[in-house]
Amino acid sequence: MSTQVFLLRHAESADPSVFHGYESDIDLSERGVRQAAAIAAALAAEKPEIVVSSAMRRARRTAETIARVCGVAHEIEPELHERKVGILSGQPFANNRIWSETSRRWSSGETGYAHAGAESLDELRERLLPAWERVTGRHEGRRIVIVAHGIVCKVLIANLIPDQTWANLGAIRNVAVHELRNAVGAWTLSRFGWLPAEFAEQGLRS
Fold first, then answer.
1. 184, 180, 130, 126: which is closest to 157 by C-alpha?
2. pTM value > 0.85
3. How many other CB atoms are there within 10 angstroms of residue 91's CB atom?
4. Burial level of 144, CB count in 10 A (0-12/13-18/19+)?
5. What is the pLDDT, as a whole number, of residue 95?
6. For residue 148, is pLDDT > 80?
7. Are 164 and 157 in contact (CB under 8 A)?
8. Are 14 and 25 in contact (CB under 8 A)?
């Protein structure tokens, strides 16, 4: 039996206008709570067997909702936490020069770059891939929901799926589902960024 992973970013945080790195353990917004409930109902149809998340509050609360609705256990994998961003934490997303410079350098192949106090793309990869292997190895052959953070999802997909890169993946939306499968020793991407149609109708799309 193949291992099937539904990888997603947590629901909307209580202040989505600023960066929340590892340094900020913020909760969900009211819309985030509704997003978590809506995606939980959609994922229940996929019959997941386990939910795994980072220990950070925004990911944990999203995962707890999914686990409860799906009637399965919830496990914590601490190393799936958000990127350490140092002075970027709490700064606004709009026209942010620090993040624009980081993303530009990563896209050009300078993956060891990070401003002071932050993790580089290389450091993220070195932390996240072993965590992925632990989770998928422990639950091999099962249907797994993994709730993490936008940059975590992006780094994992870029490193697990051939022809996917940091530069071409684009933004990772809150609770959008990325479905990965492993049947013959290699991961494939079945769906990227999927959200139920009712998200747009109910104003839940971030």
1. 180
2. yes
3. 15
4. buried
5. 86
6. yes
7. yes
8. no
